[in-house]
UniProtKB/TrEMBL annotation:
GO terms for molecular function: transmembrane transporter activity. The chain crosses the membrane at residues 58-76, 96-117, 129-152, 210-238, 269-292, 298-321, 333-352, 358-381, 393-416, 422-441. Gene3D superfamilies: MFS general substrate transporter like domains (1.20.1250.20). Residues 1-49 are annotated as: Disordered. Residues 1-10, 21-46 have a biased composition (Low complexity). It comes from Streptomyces longispororuber. Keywords: Membrane, Transmembrane, Transmembrane helix. Residues 11-20 have a biased composition (Pro residues). This is Transporter. Pfam families: MFS_1.
Amino acid sequence: MPQAPSDSPAIPAPSAPPTPSASSTPSASSMLSASSTPSAATSAPAGTRPRRNPYARLFAVPGAVAFTLGNLVARLPMGMFSVSAVTMIAGSRGSYALAGAVTATGLAATAVVAPWTARLVDRHGQARVAVPATVFAVLGSLSLLLCVRYGAPDWTLFASYAATATVPNTGGMSRARWAHLLKGDARAVHTANSFEQAADELCFMLGPVLAAFLCGTFFPEAGTLAGAVLLLTGVLLFTAQRATEPPPQGRTGAATKARSPLRARGMPALLVVFLATGAVFGAMEVVTIAYADERGHKAAAGAVLALQAAGSCAAGLVFGAVRPRGPLHRRRVLCAAAMAALAGLPLLAAAATGSLVVLAGALLCAGMATAPAMVTGMTLVQRLTPEGQANEGMTLAVTGLLGGIACGAATGGWTVEHLGAATGYAVPLAAACCALLLTVVGGDATRVDAVSSGRA
């Protein structure tokens, strides 16, 4: 894997620290590279100390703070929409089955539409595509809200929620910006991917809590309405930062000639791993809710699941602060092995103790392995994705995760119903073991592709 260049010509020590240019992307990348190499440290002026915090160096890149804040605002609703829709529909129509079917339809539509939207983003630019796609998705959310509010036929709920599938992959667009700004600096990209994974966990931890609070405190449609406003505001703020946006590939015609990332060597095998990883998340959520409900503490399920996300968030930040060592494919296998090993803790806690408190601690520990596994997976997706198709490649990975979440939730629910909630924790354990096995089996394909492309 690439490392920060250490054999570049020596740069004479300046009399004062240089001021980085805010309008030059290469200077931002070179600034990060120089700050992480021995030559830069030895050529620094006497009496100054180089910044050692990798996150401080990361956000020293001009424009990074601005686009990150906008993206966080846009990403928070991703954890709100599903909970808000279920609460709103079930409260109005009195049917969790209908609410679940509507959200499942939206998930299926997203799996179909999201890669197409991402391809347009790569081809025509983030601002040009993401804004109208977000407006269309927001209109779908508002349509759902009005249909529920005024008792429209059930089919209108399905149609409205399916329209929200055009929402762009905000996390993928942010990762694409980091990959563009930090091109050639593997350690900085590793830190950026770790931060983005921690941000994902934070948003999916806070989003459901915020949605439940709004729907319960004000009115059932409040969560959907607030999510729509936050999404549109965040995307507008994010896309307004044009200086850090990757150049659209459609201007050069490269995007029209490139193959789909799905056809890249090693990518199908990697997407199957993401499918299995998603099954871990989906099954863990359903089984935990059922386990808490079985013990009369259904209201505590959200807090227990939040601990799992908190463990993953903390682990992601720590993982990003550590210098990556060894080949990427080997780190990927080690992270998958850790995820499989720790996925057994909830099963052990549930079967041996029957205590929700002990289970919460087990989920906190189990969550610490998911972020490193996701970070190495997303880094590998970036390596295997053809030039100029970063958004599409990462959206395919997210689509694999969504499919896995749906499969894991369905399998976990069936297991809970027929074998009990404690036994249900065998499902995420089995999915994590499958992810490890698929990572090992598919490792040769991804390693060969990375080596042949000069990016191993």
